[in-house]
Amino acid sequence: MPSLLLFFFGVAFGVQLAYWLLLRRGIQRARRRAPARERPAGTLPPLSVVVAARDEEEALPALLDALRRQTHPRFEVIVVDDASGDATAQVVRDWLATLPEDEAPSGRLVRVAAPEPPRKKHALGRGIAAARYERLAFTDADCAPHPGWLAALAHGHAACDGTPPGAAGPVLVGYSPYRKATGGAWPLRRFARYETFLAGFLTAGACGLGRPYMATGRSLSYTKTLFEKIGGFAHSRDSMSGDDDLLVQEVRRRRAAPVRHAFGPETFVETDAPGSWRAWLRQKRRHTSAGRFYAAGPSAHLAVFNGTGALLWLAPLALGGAGVALLAAKLAVQAAALLPAARAFEETDLLPALPLWDLGYALYNALVVPLGLAQVPEEWE
Questions:
Q1: SS3 2
Q2: What are the φ and ψ backbone dihedral angles of 78, each rounded to 5 degrees?
Q3: Paired sense of beta strands 135-138 and 47-53, if any
Q4: Is 55 in contact with 81 (CB distance < 8 Å)?
């Protein structure tokens, strides 16, 4: 029996080793493929920023201020008020009244009086239809993009236009970290940051390997032509979430456009971590519910990757010293694989406590993810 257990956990370690080394290679490739930023600002294409907002009167002022400080010279802001019960619409109107004429940004308010499920995607679709420009950028109402965010996306579009010929792209995926000093108690804030960083690592690594499957709607960009080419959100109308992940998977399935990851601190779109464990669990349940609609390939890879990672935390209990050695070796390989991404995403302060965060991530996959996969939430919260 001990030999069988050693073989069993040894296989799990081998699987983890293969995944971490492969993902590290993916990060390196993604960084090499990141669009160059060589064109003068005046020659960059304009963008339409689309934000779906529901009861966001408190969060919107910070976002609108961050958008007003964008360095890109040509863009518009479209805020879709998804039947809010607060003063969301008035906040937008007041902001629009302060915009100077004939200068960026311009903006408009789109109001949804009769919401349709899935609510966020319906709101985003209304915003896309109202957009003046071909190239779109997406973020959320509780975010604060870096001043260079739109300029970086415009550079990405300019560098990738027509590559490959006939492509209706590209899709540009960014990193959206939690702020380091705000949101919730210390353990929650740090763990939420780690989980978000790991998702960013997996996102960028998969892009670099040519197998994109995930993105974040807090920092995402694509064209109206691409949106129409894949049939809008029809591919995921049964999922309340997935306006980012499932869209990227549909783009890959149809080979409709290249998917590139943007790097550099100017591409970051920060937001606050949830203020309580309950809020974080509710948010993660909504996010993971999209996993019910993932393609078979990404679902299988995630199950194997997360399953073997969690399994190795049981190795010390089953094997004693040999199990401790396997787990320690796995964590060492993981730290080496994460280091380039941690530097690129400015998250190196998370790595010293990696064993603690990885144990939390194993418990998250064992206890929280199944709840999101078991039942699709009916409300966009």
A1: helix
A2: -115, 115
A3: parallel
A4: no
- What residues does each domain of the chain span? 1-381
* Amino acid found at 336: A
Q: Pick the closest to residue 52 from 273, 380, 325 (CA basis).
A: 380
What distance, in Å, lies between the first and last C-alpha atoms of the chain?
49
Q: Mean of the pLDDT values across residues 44-56? A: 96
pLDDT at 73: 92
pLDDT tens-place string over residues 244-273 = 999 999 999 999 999 999 999 999 999 998
Output the six-digit token pair for 341.
Answer: 């991404």
Q: Does domain 1-381 have CATH number 3.90.550.10?
A: yes
Q: Which of 173, 145, 185 is nearest to 280 (CA)?
A: 185
Three-state secondary structure string covering 195-240: HHHHHHHHHHHHHHCCCCCCCCCCCEEEEHHHHHHCCCCHHHCCCC
Order of strands across the sheet with 75-82?
A: 106-112, 75-82, 47-53, 135-138, 220-223, 171-173, 259-261
Cα–Cα distance for residue pair 298/300, rounded to 1 Å? 5
Dig out the tokens for 163 from the structure: 């590559």
Q: 280: Cβ–Cβ under 8 A, 6 or more apart, which residues?
A: 184, 188, 192, 273, 274
Per residue in 130-159, pLDDT (tens digit) is: 999 999 999 999 999 999 999 999 999 998
